[in-house]
Amino acid sequence: MLYLGKTQVLEVDHFADAGAYLCAAGEPEETVLLPNRYIPEGTKKGSLLTVFLYRDSEDRLIATTDRPYLEKGGLAALKVKEVGKIGAFLDWGLPRDLFLPYKETRGKLKPGQKVFVTLYIDKSDRLAASMYVDKFFSADSPYQAGDKVKGHIYAVNEEIGAFTAVDDRYFGLIPKQELYEKLEIGQAVEARVTKRRPDGRLNLTLRRKAYAQMDEDAEKILQHMEMAGGILGIGDKSDASLIKAELSLSKAAFKRAAGRLYKEGRIKVFDDRIEKLPEA
After folding, report:
1. Where are the domains of the chain?
2. Taking the CB of the first residue and of the last residue of the chain, which one, N or C, has fewer CB atoms within 10 A?
3. What distance in Å separates the CA atoms of residue 84 and residue 233, rounded to the nearest whole number?
């Protein structure tokens, strides 16, 4: 049997002017064309070839020895090449771009952006992409609290957080209270696991442990003070929302870093501001 959207090993049944016709072993009644440009040197009748099956510009089933970045049921981050009224077209490593229908998108897309998608067969028996990938994630993540992980952002909800595909196969969530910078769909991130849920899903943070993060936060405060002329209008009693908007820090992180700078004699801390002290 020939499987659309899958890589499989097929046998050369016969040759024609356009290329070689392949079939599944013992099933010569169903064949697919492998164009001449893809036929490996030395191929003959009966040769076994590893090919991927998709549809060409005329919607004919066709084989290629090229390997796409994504197969049916798989998950991958693909670059957006074009965006139109009915959807977007993605680069998936084959001559014909992969169509992402508008109804299968999440958020506003733009050329050059990466999106995390799966590959499926639509009602017209064509291959298409979808950004609704949640059901494809595995629940047997090997990670525990404290582990470092990598992944891609596949959806952002301001009320919930940034949904992350850890290792492009496990569910991860950066909760909204951990979002101190703007994240875009398709963005690659490095994070730390803060909690492993009973169902195997992971809660994440982009920040390191407090003691390791403090140096970076302190440097950020100093840089903002420098740009503000040595006085920053954020102090010990400032509202958490103001601190987040100005510094992309939580109030707790700000107080830890400011406290360190105060102990080092580098700043003075007031209720409504901090002031940089002259260096000794």
Report:
1. 7-64, 75-134, 137-205, 210-276
2. C
3. 45
Tokens encoding 111:
């050329």
Write out pLDDT tens, residues 33-53: 999 999 999 999 999 999 999
3-state secondary structure of 141: coil
CB 48 within 8 A of CB 22: no
CATH number for the segment(s) 210-276: 1.10.10.10
Q: 171, 169, 174, 172: which is closest to 158 by C-alpha? A: 174
- Residue 177, classified by CB atoms within 10 Å of its CB into exposed (0-12), middle (13-18) or buried (19+), is exposed
CATH code reported for the domain at 7-64:
2.40.50.140
Q: pLDDT tens, 99-147?
A: 999 999 988 899 999 899 999 999 999 999 999 998 888 878 889 998 9
How many C-beta atoms surround the C-beta of residue 280 within 10 A? 5
Is the overall model pTM greater than 0.90, yes or no? no
Under CATH, domain 75-134 is a member of which superfamily? Nucleic acid-binding proteins (2.40.50.140)
Quote the radius of gyration of the chain (alpha carbons, Å): 26
